[in-house]
Design goal:
CATH class of the largest domain: Alpha Beta
Low-confidence stretches: none
CATH topology of the largest domain: FAD/NAD(P)-binding domain
Mean pLDDT: 93
Helix content: 25-40%
Number of strands: 26
Number of helices: 12
Distance between the termini: 24 Å
CATH superfamily of the largest domain: FAD/NAD(P)-binding domain
Number of domains: 2
Strand content: 15-25%
Largest sheet: 10 strands, mixed
Shape: globular
CATH architecture of the largest domain: 3-Layer(bba) Sandwich
Length: about 500
């Protein structure tokens, strides 16, 4: 800890010093803290979290029915067996994370209500200087760290994404985004319109439909859903055989990942067949005369994220008559609801805009490198985790077609290995740089929109780093290759520059 004198009239500035600073106490940050304590026990570190508790998305989102859309055997940590149902509620996930924190004495490293506003790198000192504001007191706090580990996730917590539709100011009911769900929202006995067709809609609608007079899902275009039982038969069988939970966790994880790899590969190699299988899975839960146009997307599977529907609860709501789906476009809001381009008007007491979120590109923090503002769109990404010209920093950005935490664990191992290597060669700084063979490499957008193109990613693309046309300079989204590639990275390769 250092104390800097300012003037006789002001309090001295206290700067806390650490080897590593982790940004965020969500699923990635808590996992990173665990791995640091186990793999780099000699490193000092702190975790700064802007919210008032751990959990990130699972703490911030409060809408009814919030649950995972990935199975917890792979979304959970590899080191902590998951013993509940594959699809878990936010409450169950927070309880699981709380156990990780308590069992590993991680709470002492976490500072809540610390929102980071700026991070400045000094090549002279080989340090990041981080400024944070206490959200509960307004007080500024200062930290230095040799290594900055960005685990802040990709949601902008302050607001969700709601398009500006004509006539919204005329609507006399309530407009609610799930990300800022009011605790006092009364929807019982009301007619509700939910705009959107993704995982949030698939969660909210079953959670509120029984209490509402009726829920209408309004979608511009259909999306893919995968209904299934919210239990894992393999896990249940192994428990009946009295197998240890750690073994069950590992076996079930491997089986799920094996099945996911095959499904993902098939979605590229035989998309029409996979599409028909998915449509048949939905049809099995709807009456024979139901118009499947509402659940038949125009794009191939996995071009956007696929929402799992546990125990087919969304479709049960439709079959019961408590929920319905309309595929159309919005012309304008009216006093009573929404006028569609087809000329039909939907009336509703409440309109829920389940229309996605805004990305937080590296926490919306003001970064500087040697007193110069850093624009990440001017950098090239190294495997979606480091950036050219940005020293001693790693960003955890997970997978779209597999669980986020799989990459969080992989990158935790990489950070710990990199820190140990830097200590071994007595280096205080590491940059990634394009190699001579990359000199004429074409630079492209962060993600190929022909491969994956959700709205939140497309809106943020101008702010994101560039990718190259070689695997080393891309976030490939391919866990099944990265699980072997990342541990095998040569830390003395020519893409790493130490100082």
């Amino acid at each position: 800890m250092t104390i800097s004198e300012t003037s006789p009239q002001t309090e001295p500035t206290i700067t806390e010093e650490f080897d590593v600073l982790i940004v965020g106490a969500g699923i990635s940050g808590v996992g990173g803290a665990y791995h640091l304590t186990k793999q780099c026990p000699g490193k000092s570190f702190v975790v700064l979290e802007g919210l008032d508790s751990f959990g990130g998305t699972w703490w911030m989102h409060r809408y009814p029915g919030i649950r995972s859309d990935s199975d917890l055997h792979t979304f959970g940590y590899r080191f902590k067996p998951w013993t509940g149902p594959p699809i878990a509620t936010a409450e169950e996930i927070l309880s699981y994370m709380g156990d990780v924190i308590e069992e590993n004495d991680l709470a002492r490293y976490i500072r809540y209500n610390h929102k980071i506003t700026s991070a400045q790198w000094s090549s002279e000192d080989n340090l990041w200087t981080i400024t944070a504001t206490r959200t509960d007191t307004g007080e500024q706090k200062f930290f230095t760290a040799n290594f900055l580990w960005m685990c802040q996730g990709y949601y902008r917590h302050s607001e969700g994404y709601t398009p500006e539709w004509p006539g919204m100011d005329r609507y006399q009911g309530k407009i609610v985004h799930p990300q800022t769900w009011p605790e006092d929202l009364e929807y019982a006995g009301k007619n509700v319109i939910v705009i959107g067709s993704g995982a949030t809609t698939a969660t909210v609608v079953p959670a509120i439909a029984a209490d509402c007079e009726h829920v209408t899902v309004l979608q511009r275009s259909p999306t893919y859903f995968r209904p299934g039982r919210n239990r894992d038969e393999l896990a249940e069988t192994l428990r009946e055989l009295d197998i240890d939970e750690e073994w069950i966790h590992e076996i079930v994880r491997r089986k799920i990942l094996h099945d996911q790899a095959i499904f993902t590969q098939r979605s590229f190699e035989e998309p029409e067949k996979v599409k028909q299988e998915m449509l048949d899975g939905v049809r099995a839960h709807l009456s024979p005369d139901y118009d499947m146009a509402n659940f038949t997307p125009t794009y191939r599977p996995w071009r956007q994220r696929i929402a799992f529907v546990p125990d087919a609860d969304l479709f049960k709501g439709i079959e019961s008559g408590k929920a319905s789906v309309v595929t159309d476009e919005i012309d304008t809001f009216t006093e009573k609801g929404i006028l569609l381009k087809s000329g039909k008007e939907l009336e509703g007491d409440i309109i829920i805009t389940a229309t996605g979120f805004n990305m937080s590109v590296l926490g919306d923090i003001d970064f500087e490198i040697d007193s110069k503002p850093l624009d990440f769109s001017d950098t090239v990404t190294y495997r979606g985790m480091m950036f050219t010209g940005v020293p001693n920093m790693l960003w955890v950005f997970g997978y779209f077609r597999a669980s986020w935490t799989l990459r969080s664990d992989l990158l935790s191992d990489f950070v710990c290995r990199l820190l140990a290597h830097m200590e071994e060669i007595e280096s205080k700084r590491v940059n990634v740089q394009l190699r001579p063979e990359d000199k004429d490499m074409e630079l492209l957008d962060w993600i190929d929109p022909e491969n994956f193109n959700p709205g939140y990613l497309m809106r943020a693309m101008p702010l994101l780093p560039k990718r190259g046309d070689k695997r080393e300079w891309q976030h490939t989204q391919d866990y099944w290759r990265e699980k072997d590639e990342i541990p095998a990275i040569d830390l003395d390769g020519s893409e790493f520059l130490y100082g």
